[in-house]
Amino acid sequence: MTITYLKKAEKTPETETATANSNKLNRRTLVGLLTIVVVLLAWWISTSLTGFISPARFPAPKEVWESLIQISTTGYGNGLLHQHILHSLLLVAMGFAVAIAVGVPLGLLMGYSKKAEALINPAFLVLRPIPPLAWIPLAIVWLGLGDAAKILVIFVAAFVPSVINSYTGVRNIEPAIMEASKMLGIRGWKMVTEVLVPGAFPMIFTGLRLSLQASWTTLVAAELIGALYGLGSILNQGSQDIYPSMILVAMVCVAVCGGLTTALLGKLENIAMPWREVRVAP
Amino acid sequence: MKKLTLIGSLGFLGVWYLAVALQLAPSKFLPMPHEVIARLVNLMQEPFAGYTLWQHMASSLQRFTQGFGLAVLIGVPLGLLMGWFRWLDDIVTPLFDALRFIAPVAWVPFAALWFGTGIGGPMLIIFTGAFPPCLINAYRGARGVDIKYLEAASMLGIGSFKTITEVLFPAAIPSIIAGLRISAGLGWLSLVGAELIVASSGVGYMIVKGQSAIATDIVMAGMLAIGFVGVLIDVAIRRLESYLLKHKTSY
């Protein structure tokens, strides 16, 4: 959710501000690391050392480590850790890819053509407010508990933000640019590649980021409700076995996967828009 | 344009009816639009899964209010304080960054472990969904305050507490409200997720029961109701915004 925009370091002669900034950054990282260390220490003290928090409520660090070893070597819930992760990643990738392949062009079209917007909007207005998680029961009725149902709900989750943001992106292109391109007789495919996509790029990427986040949330929920593989299925299995340390391992994996894929998208954004002054922080 | 909107609406319904008429799916799996509406009206009068739609919605809204309210009550003040006290920002931000990528529904197992099916479980899940935007937007709003107001405040000798309540908070209201809208959306989403898994009442529970009874019309009617109430919540927050901002310009 947090998108920190950092200004590209300006080449100013005032080196003083630069050093002040880097000092500030160092102090921040130092305090940050210290906080994390203190929290980890508090976790260790309250669980392992004093037993203040019962292991049935929240696992001790040692148990979490053992669970991690267990799931990566002997496996848990139908597979090894990397198999679960790959399975989840693959489902997110498929649902997400189909959603943006359909959603972004649709959003661009709706933004560009008032007629298309008027035509498509009624259906979109009905479907848009329905939270993606509410599609899960319908997907299960239609497609069962397999992968197809999960891809469907991920698609629905990722579709809406990519349409809305591409649409807004086109709508926010400066009228002067649109008029100039019309005057120069740009139309068809060239209009898309030369005007609409570059103009709407920042918003498209905002949409992709929201889509990606929604994809992960939906995937976890769908896998929690019923799945053989995947990170959500570990959560579900751990919950049924009352195995708090395994639950925590799965939660951390979900967070790491979500974080890494979002970071990857940020990298792509920086590569795709080399002309931008503002860069997305890693 | 009006004509096209009409054609679009009719087209949407037309495709739906056509799909049923061509028997793309058995009517058990794809009811006709009017059947869904009829079911929706029916659910308001006759109980399904123990309660009528109104009662399910009431218990959902109650859970939502509790989780969302807690998120606002903690998130907004904490965000403002982080915008004012650098040390708090330095401490909370890394923790927050470490936690924010955990999808709200991933808290479900712990919610079940800690609270059973009691009220605390869904509340925790809604809270984890609704909390981040409250915090982030209050923080950004506070950081975005024009420096001259802060200088004026410090020149007038106002203390930290008063600066936060009298300067940072009013200036951050637009940003906070934007955050509340995102937060309510995510909270509502997380509520549905929570009710799908850990609850014995509520609209999410209702559609899960519809799913296990393979009653597609109930599932669809429930989805429509969820979407509609989600829109109502958003409208209510926008109303609040125009009320608060009107207040601001008048003085």
Summing up helix and strand content along with how strands pair, one would put the structural category of chain B as: mainly alpha
Portion of residues in helices of chain A? over 70%
Profile the largest sheet of chain B. none
Identify low-pLDDT runs of chain A: 1-16
Q: Give me the side-by-side strand order of the main sheet of chain A.
A: 1-2
From the spread of the alpha carbons, the general shape of chain A counts as globular
Q: In CATH terms, what is the fold-level topology of the largest domain in chain B? A: MetI-like fold
Count of runs of 4 or more consecutive helical residues of chain A? 10
Average pLDDT score of chain B = 88
Cα Rg of chain A? 23 Å
Order of helices and strands of chain A: EHHHHHHHHHHE
Structure description:
The complex is a heterodimer of chains A (282) and B (251). By secondary structure, chain A is mostly helical. Chain A has two domains: 16-53; 67-280, MetI-like fold (Orthogonal Bundle), CATH 1.10.3720. Chain A is 76% helix and 2% strand. Chain A is built from ten helices and two strands; from the N terminus they run E-H-H-H-H-H-H-H-H-H-H-E. Chain A has a two-stranded antiparallel sheet with strand order 1-2. In chain A, helix 3 (81-112) packs parallel to helix 6, helix 3 packs antiparallel against helix 8 (188-225) and helix 6 packs antiparallel against helix 8. The two termini of chain A are 13 Å apart. Mean pLDDT of chain A is 85; it is low at 1-16. Chain B is an all-alpha fold. Chain B folds into two domains: 1-25, no CATH class; 31-249, MetI-like (MetI-like fold), CATH 1.10.3720. Chain B is 80% helix and 0% strand. In chain B, helix 8 packs parallel to helix 9 (203-212). The longest helix of chain B is centred in the C-terminal third of the chain and has 38 residues, at 160-197.
